[in-house]
Queue: 2 jobs
Job 1
Amino acid sequence: MRVLEHQGVVGRSPPRKDGADKVTGRAKYLDDLGFEGQIFGRTVRSQVPHGRIRRIVWDEAFDWSDVVRVTAADIPGENVVHLIEDDQPMLAHDLVRHREEPIALLACADREKLEEALLRVRVEIDELEPLLDPLASTRVFKSYRIEQAPEGLLQAFSSGRVVEGTYRVGHQEQMYIEPQAIAAVPRPDGGVTIYGSMQCPFYIHRALQRLLKLDDAQVAVIQVVTGGGFGGKEDYPSVLAGHAALLARKAGRPVKMVYKREEDIAATTKRHPAIMKYRTAVAEDGTLVALEAEIVMDGGAYVTLSPVVASRGVLHAAGAYRWQHARIDCRVVQTHTPPNGAFRGFGVPQTLFAVESHMERIAAELRIDPLELRRKNALRLGDVLPTGQKLVSSVSAREVLDAVAARSGYLRKRKEYAADEGARRRGIGLSLSFHGAGFTGSGEVKLKPRAGVELTARGARVLSISTDIGQGTITVFSQMAADALGLLLDDLEVAENDTSRVPDSGPTVASRTIMVVGGTITKAAQAMARILQTYVAEVHGVQAAEVSCERGIFSAQGRALAPFAAIAKRYLSERGPLTVIENYRHPPDVHFDDAAYRGDAYPCYGWAATAVEVEVDLDTYQVSLLDVVTATDVGLAIHPVLAEGQVEGGTVQALGYALLEEHVWSQGKLLNTRMQNYLIPTALDVPRMQTTLLENPYPQGPYGAKGIGELPMDGPAPAVVAAVLHATGKLVPELPLSPDRVMRAMEERASPASPVAQRRSAEHGRRP
Amino acid sequence: MKLVVNGAERSFDVPPLKRLLDVLREDLGLTGTKEGCGEGECGACSVLVDGELLNSCLVPVCQVDGATVLTVEGVASQGELTPLQKCFLECGGAQCGICTPGMIVAAHRFLSTGKPATDENVRDAIAGNLCRCTGYAKIVEAIQLAATQAPAAAAAEGARR
């Protein structure tokens, strides 16, 4: 445990501010709220993956008198779900491009009747051939190429040792425990107020303006307590809010829509599946020389966030390593499946799975220990990434590797487990990951995020639209502002996330909340502190430079002058409200050229290493986790307990991705849409974890902090692959490592390049 | 029909097959109990019925007519957080909080059994409660800390049941 020298709350772990409400059941989520006169909404969906709508048939024998019906014809504005490109209709009216495509909406006060009504609507569709194989798709949403000294590629591949591999990952479901939930309340001015479970209130705000042809002031979007998001509540809530608003507008009553779990799993966005071909040239001593990669991601039916997912994925595809030459191609394509979207990691869990698994392959070919290979090539301060970005601060690749190697007993266990015999084989493996904090490229510059603080009679109120979806935004923002103002945590409050009342600090995504928004709030709080210091100096007749505030007491030269609250009250009555809003300022030396796709894609990176210990049962091919050790450089942990919570939670989601979570499809239909058949880890599926936070401050970040939310999702899956390789001699290049995949790998002929594989397979007598 | 919910007798007139979860949330106004899946997988709707941990989404209310029910709202007595709830706050056992009511009820039940709070026992006790945020580490830690802080209280609780 570190010793903090300052008096403040940054770096300490007070109980989260919303904690008491959550442990007592008082916290009100959307479905816990009632709206005067509310009715309930449901969605009529395509049921075919591709086709042209002929007509909607409403059963004439059914009493529709108390059922509100909405189709595309009822849309007053543009029939789009506004996001990056406006290609997705809010309600399909002509072509349908995936099986869950919404076509009509129903609402009724009686929920049983509503379910019956859903069965009395039939949509006649002329079916078209669906496009389901991303490799066969020529409809490219976006493609990228990154090149680093490409003129040397040919030479590198002809003179170096060439190692090749193909890696595949499927969909992953966010599986927030609270399903998507929105209520729309119509307003007398023709506008609408939205309440709901969401990450990005302004996405909804803008989408509704387009859909309903409303001006800015006619829409208000209010986030209520949100039961998890993980990216799944980044863009999809715009669809649900659009639907609820259309129904509410027609009904003239509040409409609540809460998805049932099956509908939520079937219809909402997931992590992009990817097929990733890697070809590398390496020197015999293990120096990485050249990389060629071709990455294909399945975007699903509509663009949604695919271009930015692919962008972040490709920017991390070379891994946290130095290369001399590289050419990395990535395309994200259309298929007739529900659109894929944001999920914690946002393209990086896919590409890091590929590159880290590939590192294992290289190590096996060269007969070098994978840790040594990683240490030798890991990025250092001053190294240059394939986009040309020079790393100038806060690089911890070697440090995190060394920390997990030491804490997991990696070297000792590599030797010890190699001697395992019999049907149960243990293995230990590790991975190295990095993750850019904040929006990619010039995203933050274009977005122009704004956030601030306002003076209250007791302390201050934080103003931003950044949502607390469980990660602890309310608490960490309060800590950051409290220290800037010299207040106690209890003196801080955080304004309700209401688009009509707080500035647009941007979406709650991209590991940007602490670094970008928290940094802006800190600057605003510092500016407010200066204003109040000047005021106190005037009131008390001292020099402003001498005035400071600690733990809620203003003092000058060691003499207490007045409590903050007394000053605040006096200021407010004498001078009126005090609000300070700051614009985010991008570090001036960080530049990215979006057109050329060169430069500083991210102002800084978080670094993490994960060691995983497994036991593989060679009779059942079951992989069990024995130990998980992580080391994560977060710059500075504003709240260490919450930061560890991010690491541990992300790690377990990634272990689910590695071992359990798999979607099964048939002709564009998702077959496992229930928690019973899409399994996420329970407390019994994962072991106790050893979590270490390293702090290598990012000088431009608030208090030195960088992003943390997504990084833990990136590394654990390839670490499991590495551990299973160590246990069995087989590299399983596809997730999840379910017993059937491990069995298939075990029954394949031993890879000639892998001496371990040959020995292990021969020992166990399973070679065909 | 009637139930003794969190110590108070409540009577209500509902269809016999209405889910206990919906009776609690809609008829008795106890929205602390959550619905995550509606099929007994996630445990967000966990309550104690006559001391047994049940998924209230799977229970038709007619089956438990007259029973004693404890929901998350009844865990803290007179607004005072229990050691378990305080440990959840201290250890970071709640993130988004949607699984927390069910976790608290399951953990409360576990502590009342007086079983040793080994990793295995604690994980077993909450194995029917899914959490997607924490990775369970801080929840297990919170329950173990609560077990060390209030063994006497836990034993008394156990004796009472």
Job 2
Amino acid sequence: MNKDTLLIEIGTEELPPNAAKLLSDSFAQALSEQLDAAHFEYREVLPFVTPRRLSVQIKQLSAQQPQQQVARKGPAIKAAYDEHGQATKAALGFAKTCGVEMKDLQTQETEKGAWLYFESCVAGQFIDDMLQEFVEQSLKKLPVPRPMRWGASDTEFVRPIHWVCILYGSRVIPCTIKQHTANNFTYGHRFHSNGKISLAHADDYVNALKNAYVIADFATRQSVIKQQIEQCAQQHDARLHYPQSLLDEVTNLVEWPVAVVGEFSQKFLSIPKEVLVMTMQESQRYFPLFNAEDNSLLAYFITIANIESSRPETIKLGNERVIKPRFEDAEFFWERDRDIRLSDRSQDLNGILFEKQLGSIHEKSERVTQLATQLCTMLDINEQASVKAAQLCKNDLLTDMVNEFPKLQGTMGRYYASHDGENIEVCLAIEEHYLPLYSGGALPTTMAGKVVALCDRVDTLVGIFATGKKPTGVKDPYALRRAAIAIIRLSIEADLDFDLTQLLHSAGELLKPKLAVDTAVDEVFEYIMERMRAYYQDQAIEQDIFESVRAVRPTRLVDFNQRVQAVRTFLTLEESTSLASANKRIANILKKTHHQSHIAIDKGLFSQQAEKTLYQQITILENEIAPIFDAGQYSQALTTLAKLRPSIDRFFEEVMVMDDDIAVRDNRIALLHKVNQAFIATADISLIQS
Amino acid sequence: MQAVILDRDGVINHDRPDYVKSPHECCPIDGSFDAIARLSQAGLKVFIASNQSGLAKKLFDYATLFSIHHSMAKQVELLGGHIDGFFFCPYLNGPERKPEPGLLLDIGERANIDLSVTPFIGDTLKDVQAALSAQALPILVRTGKGQATLHEHLIPAQVPIYDNLYAAVDSLLKE
């Protein structure tokens, strides 16, 4: 079987750098799926991508599909021959369709009987005949959100196509892809290469392009860039810190990377580091350099040029000429913003709408400030820093710097508050109140930061729910889901113990002047509970454990969590299985008999030893647990109650609860109620599945 | 041509004035199952489109109808063929009851076939009308009510006429 390399290259106008790699990988993936479905064999699939081309090389692709066994089913044997043993119309017709004589037909035995049958070997089709369809189908699968048209035609693609190269071995496979006829040439670098480059063989691709100043392979190109920037950093005794996304983007901005180091005026280093780094990385795609010892920003940057210039100083100066005005703008904002104290901006927050029914950001700010005061009281901590932080946390939204760089909200607040001489905790809290920024992200480190983070989100949740705009799985413009998760993490992981329903209720009260709050508070609590469910699911804690605690409706999340942990520990005990069943049994009995809880137990009505023992034991243990319980030591409380197991088992074995004497029966039920109450104080163990 | 649609009563099995109410009352017209088998062997899909208002009139129930279908399917399978779908209209009137095109259009959509190249073989004017409305290719056979139809109505000249289903299929496959 002939095997050779297949090369498909689609030459385009510069591809969007953040989408290019995905397009290339999707193309390769889709193509290999087409080949697999048609049973073409190959050894490996290599995707390539540069700004100007999407390509894929398939090594050792077989030229032809393997032979296929085609089996056709005809009439049943009993319908194939008439009473004289002659072939029937059906059988003759079948033989004719298969193109053979009756004698060439085979018989197949099935559970339904014997059937006429014909198996033949069909030669596979050649890649030449199938490739057009494969490529068209693969291109259809590319994730292109907004394809474009160009010139006078109505073909659509992510960017205009300039050429198509399709080679199998050394021959072109005749195809027309998006109105381009496939050929055997490619093009090199835009500036370092001239005209068509004929490829003698599909395997020549990478080298031919390299000679034409194009590094076709993404990974190779990226490692060249990485090496270059590390070398530059070393030369300047500096260190690099950059997000991988920047490196990925830059890799798809060039075909022949050449790192060039530029510098800027030291005076700009007085501008906050975050501003300079954001300008360099996001606006310019530069790599900033940092001092190797203290990580302070250095007045240098690395840009990756797409040209191996004979006069690199031109590139250096050109970039420096571009970055200078950007930094000057930033400097201007930095100066001007600091002319006004952050605290003097509060009234102007009235100009920014939070939500139509909920009012301005200023009004929100005031509500959050009041809420923070209340939360501090609940937590029994000094409110000063939290209140100040709440008052100032949104003010940086009015500054020119945040207007220019919205991602720097909070960070600029920290800088400006610090400049105004605010307490350091307040400054940090302003920046931190936005945390956690994403799933699993860091939490605020300061207490004020945690308080404001909580109160801001509580106000948003209750407010938006009150407007009726509950979030759904697909539509959550106010990020309420993330807000609820943040509240959970801030409570449990930052160990803030307060009554959530109380805080939600306070938020509701503060909103009343603006709109009817009605059921919003309860709905928000339920919503947070659902997020708690997911929170525990993510930690691989069984659902029934969550349900057992949920059933007793704790309203303090720290407390909720302690109970959950207690039940987990309890379930590791050997006694837990039978105690869970016992609790289920008790729960069923209590449900069926509509027990009146005020009926007191009369010891005199106990006749059997088993019930007397159980009563004795529960009374003792109740007293034993009381202080443990009050201290929130749920784990210990449940472990202690585990001692009841033998007496409960014995009770159910020997005592008939539903005695004919109503007084005796009610008394036994009251005893069971007492036992039930002892467990339920922590969690409803009857909900645990075995 | 990817498929062929057939009327049932009068084309595949003998029609009855008092409705075909059980598998027992369903007798195949000579050669009709062989014809269906030939269509399958030629790689064509075979669908049946029939009016079954007997359901609305409570003359038989769905279970009985399905057992008639089942029996037909088995007999065709014995000959090496396959019926790809039974479509029927259980109502007394409505857009799916022939001569309305609804049933044929439904087949076109669900089976993803181009009706303009799909023959519909029937024995009554209703079948011809339904095919024309659905822009399929009507064919008339003389079995069942076919001969009577030709006497009573003027059938458009472009509608091919055959003696029975086998002859019609023979002609279709020759092309």
